[in-house]
Amino acid sequence: MAEIQYRTDLRVDVAAFKDILERSGLAARRPVGDTQRLAKMLAAYNLILTAWSGEVLVGIATCWTDYAYSGYLADLAVAADCQHGGVGRKLVELARATVGPQVTLLLLSAPAAVGFYPKIGMDRFQDCFIFRRSQ
Questions:
Q1: DSSP code of 55?
Q2: What does the alpha-carbon distance between residue 130 and residue 36 come to, in Å, rounded to a whole number?
Q3: How many CB atoms lie under 10 A from the CB of residue 25?
Q4: Which of 115, 120, 6, 116 is CA-nearest to residue 59?
Q5: Is the pLDDT confidence value at 135 over 80?
Q6: How many CB atoms lie within 10 A of CB 130?
Q7: Hey, CA dihedral for 38, 40, 45, 51, is it positive or negative?
Q8: For residues 8 and 31, what is the distance between their CA atoms, to the nearest angstrom?
Q9: b vs e for 52-80, b when ≥16 Cβ sit within 10 Å of the residue's Cβ?
Q10: Structure confidence by residue, pLDDT tens digits, 3-52
Q11: Would the pTM of this model clear 0.85, i.e. be above it?
Q12: Strand-by-strand arrangement of the 56-65 sheet
């Protein structure tokens, strides 16, 4: 595998976004069958960090942030064959560095990834509330 290159200046198209969600194992938790919805998601993120092995997208982190106080890490997807190699950790580190130290960065974990986030130094927060989507 080629050396991983991390980028903050590239937007990905819907096909590449769908592909990395599928290759990461997140397809069951994201609307990959609805390309219009995926396109709306991509258009709304104001921070997209990507990881590339040559020309192949192997990881993505998507965020909404005000760059002043709060940020939400909406997606962290790493291709299954690149997991456990530090790609997800690096994407989160880059997200934190990009939004800055004054920003609280939070996320909702997929059940299979709950054990990952404490390993990279994130605190579990109990006082969170949610309205779940109906579709």
A1: T
A2: 24
A3: 16
A4: 6
A5: no
A6: 6
A7: positive
A8: 24
A9: bbeeebbbbbbbebeeeeebebbbbbbbe
A10: 999 999 987 999 999 999 999 998 888 999 999 999 999 999 999 999 99
A11: yes
A12: 4-7, 47-53, 56-65, 70-78, 104-106
**Positive or negative torsion for Cα 44, 131, 31, 110:** positive
Whole-number Å distance between alpha carbons of 124 and 98: 22
Report the distance separating Cα 47 and Cα 64, nearest Å.
Answer: 6
pLDDT in tens, 50-72: 999 999 999 999 999 999 999 99
Beta bridge pairs of residue 7: 50
> For residue 38, what are its two tokens?
């995926």
Asked if residue 99 lies in contact with residue 8, where contact means CB atoms within 8 angstroms, the answer is no
End-to-end CA distance of the chain: 38
